[in-house]
Design goal:
By secondary structure, the protein is an alpha+beta fold. Helices cover 24% and strands 16% of the residues. The radius of gyration is 23 Å and the shape is globular.
Length: 328
Amino acid sequence: MKQRQPAVDPAAADAQWAGDAQRRAANADVRQLLRHARRRRHARWLAVGLVLLALAAVGTLLVRAGALDNLLGVEPATAPAAAPPPAASTTPAPMLDQARPFAATPSADWADGVEGIVPPPPKPVNGFSVEQVAAATALVRDVLVASRLDPRLIVDHDPAAFLDKLAPDARRQLDPLFTGGNEPEVQSLVSLIAKDNSLLPVEPKVEGTMTVSAGEAGELVVHTNYVFVYAFAPPGPTRLVDAMNVLVVVRAEVDYVLRSGDRWTPGSQGLWYGAATGYAYSIGCEAYREGYLAPASTERAVTANGTRDPATYFDPTSPLPATSGCPD
């Protein structure tokens, strides 16, 4: 799927509200702003579902048949040609270990959950003191936890803890987008697990960075670039050969903007969402179109894009993909 609707860019909002700080915050029309932002970044927020359920089934058959022995470095058996077929108990175990679902992926050694979100050492920036910068990055860390890791939002779809950390006007703008089919509007800011899906009892894996820079007068920009890997419970007793049948990878690059000072109305002071881009990999495209995450194995078929090494989707420093793996 091509990019999902990202959140409004505060730079664009400032241009619209220029000249009058009071009028800038009070007259925001969130739906129109988000539609404009969506069109501008339509080619950036990509949903990339590259793992085919059919491939998993084929892989299982090949492993069981021994057709992959040479590729896997397995020595061929030396039993006589007339030997009976191996017993069922000798069938190779699937690569997926539900107790260690990340073991066979590039995220195996990443930090678990909140431990993977580490603010940088604070330095004074753009008129903000060391203490203010430290408070801002700690707040952004809490926002990332609330939007990408907290079960209250990602599983129960309750955005209260996330919204409470934003400026009042930002909270007012986003709140209506969590209901009524508007969930794709906030997909670039939060992770929502699709209904009838559940996560394995393990923390998501997290890797990435947070940096701080100067914005306009009275603004501190905190740029976040993280990859989150979620492990879903397999549907039923299905034997899954590849761990990616149950893993979903989400990369999110989001700017959070702290606004402070007399330039801003009381409702605009606080943390705002800014430019947002990224992608989701190994997903169910139907669920993603509705604003939710589900593994690729929940669908009968997913369009594959074989032009890129799958490991790059786990790398927060890799270029964003130029094409989508989900059909329009």
